[in-house]
Amino acid sequence: MSESSTPLNPSSVPVSGDRFYRTVWRWHFYAGLFVIPFLLILAITGIIYLFKPQLDAVMYRNLMFVQPGATMLPYTEQVQVAQAIDPDATVSKFIPNVAADRSAEVTLATADERNLTVFVNPYTGQVLGSRDEDNNLQAIARTIHGTLMIGTGGDYLVELAACWGLVLLISGLYLWIPRSQFSIFGTLIPRLWSRNKRIFWRDLHAVPGFYGVLLVGFLILTGLPWSAFWGETFAQVWGRFPAQMWEDVPQSTVLTGSLNQTGQVVPWAVQQLPMPQSNAAGHENHLGHSHTETQTARDQVSSRTAVNLNSVVALAQERGAPPGFSVTFPEGETGVYTVAAFPNDPTQEITLHIDQYSGEVLADVRWNDYGLVPKAVELGVAVHMGKYFGLANQLLMLFAALVTILLSVTGAVMWWLRRPKGVGLIGAPALPPYVQHWRVPLAIVAVLGLAFPLVGISLVLVLLLDYLVLSRIPALKRVFG
User: Fold this and answer.
1) Would you say residue 465 lies in a domain?
2) Is residue 231 part of a domain?
3) Interior CA angle at 103 toward 309 and 135, to 5°?
4) From CA 110, how far away is CA 89, in angstroms rounded?
5) What is the pLDDT of residues 286-298, one digit of tens each?
6) Which domain holds residue 250?
């Protein structure tokens, strides 16, 4: 909660002999020093993405809303008029209009590697405009939030910072606990009337930190399942489905989660689901032909079996897919249509894989098919994104993000006020001469290491650096405390 070189609570003055307290205090300082910039970035970008529905409705109103008509054009025609704006592009995804006054959305993968969403009036076939899905406010905020816009390395950094954020919360809560006589002022009520700057900023940091610790911790924990290292490992352990759900169905080595490479398409719970394969029997003789011949052959097969976008959407609606579901188009001869719904209520989630030739449903995964842990993750993600219970959910997560910003700013101010005046001095809390009751901190490191391997490894490295290097080299000891 702080990177201050003073205790969080006015009544929690460390005794020189309480070396464990001083050790936690030092951990808290270094955690804040590393985490504060990342927490500010995550909180600000999170707020932007939190209000995506409202921002989209304002920023793209002319693209998203239409005048309802009597009849809609077939979905295949809606896609055709969208693709006409870039004939060399490949149609990758289609979202039917979610309401009578909304446009349909067609996603094109262009030759210059852009993902372009084309908005189509489903009644008139008019192209209302397009949006670059990689270069708009929401997409940029999401990318910064997840990877800092530097790819997998950024994802690991965000994950490491989030895990260290948990260390910050736990150590801050420990430091908040009164060490002597309890006082409601400075513990539960901040003394904002104090003329002492240190007391003012300390209370403004410590008290909101106590009230917001659970919410901020919730944000961190519910965001981790989407991280690169911990999230991937967690999904491999808990995101499995029994193989008998789709016996005798050919499966590829590609996972359903691959559809999320260009944004949220399928729920987290189905990311480890193997993509089934369409049965191309009777179609092999077309393989090896030119691209044009192969495409023509596929069109002929689709025509014979009546499997096209119209029938896929009709099947999805018949199967109860909620409004807002997307249809991802097959890739290659054995690819499948994927219908996925990621609605506000996770209990309505649905993922369908459909044979592109026969129209057979090869996999149908819903809420009741999830295990207990995937259900908890999906509920947590829905609340994290502010979707589960409407505006109240958004405001609750906004409060958590604002608390995060407040803790980060006040922690930085506290350090600035208390820092040593010498040039280049960081002003970390003094390192205890030796650690009393060393088994407790060692147990904490072990638990964190098992639960979050990245933070465990980094914590061991920091402790070794602190005790073996920083405390033994006079020049470094003067800088780091």
Assistant:
1) yes
2) no
3) 95
4) 4
5) 433 334 443 443 4
6) 240-370
